[in-house]
Amino acid sequence: MQQYGLIGSQIAHSLSPRLQNLAFAKAHVAANYALYDINPTDFDVAIQPILADLNGANVTTPYKQAIMAKLDEVTPLAQKTQAVNTVYRDKHGRLIGDTTDGKGFWLALQYQIGVLTGQHVLLIGCGGAARAIMAAKPSDVTLTVANRPSDHFDEYAKVTQTLLEQPLDDLTQIDALLNQMSVMLMQQRLVCTMIKQFCRRNKCEQRKLKLILSI
């Protein structure tokens, strides 16, 4: 039987095993999906025997970077984002690390707004999967990232070809606006209010601009 799982820390609440094992059963695949909840202090010792028994895995916080050194190879996209969320074995049995965060985002956005070609997307903030989103941007899409100046943002900006520093006060050329700000739950209402006010000033509703407040 093939063995798969989710590698992370404090993941006992995850519903991934229920979802994945149901999918395996429906597809008549002889496989099992389990949780590998590893304490950060034990990661270096615990991860190797776990990987040795796996056919593939998903990787979540806080190991998306740490696991890269434990694999045989990582894809160019994963190298660019410096994060791995998917591990699989190639035809030679080697463990390959990849990231689907960015690619998954752009596929989901295409589902939301239709054809991506020629679209101008505004990404507000650099939390969560922002770096992967920036790295996986389709070549025929224009992406503008708005964030306050910080070392964190400068590091993320390295995955883009150009970086222009200028104030953002006009949404007339934007087709989709997305929130990637890292905020505490208690601040979420403030963030949503701010973005909605920004959109009202730029007549987003009249222009049928897609507003996605959480990604």
TrEMBL record:
CC per GO annotation: cytosol
Protein name, per record: Shikimate dehydrogenase
Single GO term (MF): NADP binding
GO biological process, one term: aromatic amino acid family biosynthetic process
Keywords: Amino-acid biosynthesis, Aromatic amino acid biosynthesis, Oxidoreductase
Pathway terms, separated by semicolons: Metabolic intermediate biosynthesis; chorismate biosynthesis; chorismate from D-erythrose 4-phosphate and phosphoenolpyruvate: step 4/7
InterPro entries xrefs: Aminoacid_DH-like_N_sf, NAD(P)-bd_dom_sf, Shikimate_DH-bd_N, Shikimate_DH_fam
Annotated EC: 1.1.1.25
